[in-house]
Write a structure and sequence with these properties.
This protein has about 650 residues and is of the alpha/beta class. It contains 24 helices and 18 strands. The chain has a six-stranded parallel β-sheet with strand order 8-7-6-9-10-11, sandwiched between helices.
Length: about 650
């Protein structure tokens, strides 16, 4: 409230929040101004008017049984216990575990859906999809010990399906992709008994252990958190990525556009928002179907314009160069343009608020997945065996809406061109060349100090902080300090909108990183796709260890991770699987644990001493970047590479010398 003097009387005037404080994305800001004029509410407004619950924010409450809910005092956490006697550490560890288990379940269920499609393709029951990348199929099969020499693709695929199914259903032993983990890292997991057996088992056990009156030791709960999260990263998420590549193609660099300016006033605009690529793949076919294109033209449009949002959008951006309209905090605001004729959603990060905004602007909104219905929103179920039925129907609805548009169209003329689609396989090729595909040049450039280290900057956007701004500022600081940044998910889109995805952005990097980027012709920030594609970062870390010179385990590498604007439980699962894999991982916004408690000390210090990584927190983007850089420097020192060794770029002559030696 602001005080305004009118004559002698003091009148209290409600201060309208400044939209410029909510987002650094100009397109989103413009649409928020318009929404305000139109009287339409978004998540930004709701976040501003609803204070986050301070007890919940510190994880100091428990509602796991009806003797409670029990509320402890975050300022004096050891003063009280719950009715059952649960201490603050038990309560916080259980709450944290419930976030891990939910996030891991989301990713693993996604991976299982992909595996279901794969099985049906291999068995010949699904005809609309095929194995687009047989080479990748062979590589993945080989990586888990399946014989490929001289065998038919179908036979390899059948064996691969059976092996990967164990990622979910196995009750004893180790998940198949544990074979990809560097031996020393795996040794640490075995020592602490956290190698995942099968995702279903780990998820079930963690749910059991967090029930009232079961596991009441924060250290033991954390152990099962690690096992479950690792079953996500090296299990469900990795299966989702690998199977999607096999079915739809492994990404290679592609030049494309990002932001709301990708909408076209004279075309039928369709947005697909969610996480599973199968529906999106079929939609790509639908919008190119000559009969539907003709129908759009008959309705007065010049064509059909397909755009992605959030994670499936990031996948389609990487694989096919489908333009991307924006990240999580822009999904409501893009509807304010009035230009979105239809939006189809599947699972995860779909705000219920979309329904109301879509209604205000006449956008046809459809849920498509049996797991995700929204009250008041029309559902057109997507079936993998007959995928075009759903996607064609969405296109037909979009055409009808285009013909009957009755709201003003206001598209912010803002978009950025960039290069996306840097899969692990491509990075290998890009750095090593066709005949010597390898991570050796990356490791060499880290060892010689040109690249100080590698940071994974990933995750959501969140209206509790300035949208996009935290991502952009921290990445700027990292690359300025010669840290190569790899990205996924909404974070990738934040940086893409800000123009960091061009090779020319190398001028924003420090001198060493700039030199490498200019030599290779790559941007200083590499986009790897969606959130499940964080598994590509794990594979890259394993490869850096395998190539040599940077220690024996992932925990030895000069790398760090961050989710500066995180909001979802999936982010906590991702954070914890990076920590359990050996990576220092820093979160922004808030951390749902009280400082100076035993559980906090375990996550932020203790795990590192056990051979894992550790958690970190910083709200400020520059602090966040600098704690990561400090960690990278600490690892460089431990490796004995803290002083740059040689300053000659690894060129062809040097390679020949090494090969001749
Ligand atoms: O899985 S980054 S807001 S869209 S949770 Fe969601 Fe977060 Fe975006 Fe994708 Ni990931
Ligand atoms: Fe309270 Fe214990 Fe029940 Fe939690 S489990 S609500 S702490 S009595």
């Amino acid at each position: 409230m602001e005080e305004e003097k009118k004559g002698k009387k003091v009148v209290k005037v409600a201060k309208e929040p400044n939209i410029k404080d909510w987002t650094s994305c100009d397109a989103t800001a413009r649409m928020l101004e318009k929404a305000r004029k139109d009287g339409v509410e978004t998540a930004f407004d709701r976040a501003a008017s609803m204070k986050a619950c301070p007890i919940g924010a510190d994880s100091a409450c428990c509602k796991h049984c009806s003797m409670g809910p029990c509320r402890l005092n975050p300022k004096d956490p050891y003063a009280k216990v719950g009715v059952c006697g649960a201490t603050i550490d038990t309560i916080m560890a259980r709450n944290f575990a419930r976030m891990v288990v939910s996030g891991a379940a989301a990713h693993t269920d996604h991976g299982m859906s992909m595996l279901d499609v794969f099985r049906e393709v291999v068995n010949g029951n699904i005809k609309d999809y095929t194995i687009k990348d047989p080479l990748k199929l062979e590589e993945v099969a080989k990586s888990i010990g399946i014989e490929t020499e001289g065998r038919e693709i179908k036979d390899i695929a059948t064996d691969l399906y059976e092996e990967l199914e164990r990622t979910y259903t196995q009750v004893e032993g180790e998940i198949p992709f544990a074979q990809r983990v560097p031996p020393k890292t795996l040794e640490t997991w075995r020592k602490h008994d956290v190698v995942p057996r099968g995702a279903m088992r780990e998820i079930m056990e963690l749910m059991h252990r967090t029930h009232m009156g079961v596991d009441q030791h924060y250290e033991n709960i954390t152990k099962q958190c690690s096992r479950t999260a690792l079953g996500d990263g090296w299990g469900g998420s990795m299966v989702a990525t690998e199977i999607s590549d096999i079915l739809f193609g492994t990404p290679t660099p592609v030049r494309t556009e990002v932001n709301m300016g990708c909408l076209k006033e004279d075309q039928v605009n369709i947005i697909i928002h969610g996480h599973e690529p199968n529906m999106f793949e079929s939609m790509l076919e639908s919008v190119n179907d000559p009969a539907l294109v003709k129908a759009a033209k008959d309705a007065g449009a010049t064509g059909i314009n397909l755009l992605g949002m959030c994670c499936s959008g990031a996948e389609m951006l990487s694989r096919h160069g489908v333009p991307h309209a924006g990240n999580f905090m822009s999904t409501e605001t893009i509807l304010v343009t009035g230009a979105v004729d239809a939006m189809g959603v599947d699972v995860q990060c779909i705000k219920q608020g979309l329904g109301k905004v879509a209604e205000c602007y006449g956008t046809r909104l459809f849920t498509t997945n049996p797991r995700c219905h929204i009250e008041g929103v029309q559902h057109i179920e997507f079936h993998e065996h007959t995928p075009r039925k759903c996607t064609d129907e969405i296109v037909q609805n979009a055409i009808v809406r285009f013909k009957n548009r009755n709201v003003p169209i206001d598209i912010p003329n803002l978009k950025s061109i960039g290069i996306h689609g840097f899969s692990h396989e491509y990075v290998n090729y890009m750095l090593g060349g066709t005949f010597r595909a390898s991570y050796t040049p990356l490791n060499d450039n880290i060892i010689n100090g040109r690249i100080r280290g590698v940071a994974g900057v990933v995750g959501c956007t969140n209206p509790r902080v300035k949208h996009d701004w935290v991502h952009v500022e921290m990445v700027k600081e990292l690359i300025r300090n010669d840290v190569l940044v790899v990205q996924t998910g909404c974070s990738q889109i934040s940086l893409a909108k800000a123009g960091f995805y061009t090779p020319e952005a190398a001028h924003l990097a420090g001198p060493g990183l700039k030199e490498v980027c200019e030599t290779v012709g790559m941007p200083p920030v590499l986009g790897l796709g969606s959130c499940v594609d964080n598994s590509r970062i794990l594979i890259a870390c394993a490869e850096m260890v395998r190539v040599g010179g940077l220690g024996e385990s992932i925990a030895d590498l000069p790398v760090a991770g961050a989710a500066p604007e995180w909001m979802s439980e999936k982010a906590i699962s991702i954070g914890h699987y990076f920590v359990a894999s050996g990576v220092f991982t820093v979160f922004g916004v808030t951390f749902p644990i009280i400082e100076e408690t035993k559980f906090h000390k375990l996550l932020f210090e203790g795990l590192e001493g056990m051979g894992f990584g550790k958690w970190g927190f910083a709200a400020d983007p520059y602090d966040m970047a600098h704690v990561m850089i400090e960690h990278i420097d600490k690892k460089r020192k431990a490796l004995g590479i803290d002083k740059a060794r040689e300053r000659v770029l690894f060129d062809m002559a040097a390679r020949r010398d090494i090969e001749a030696a």
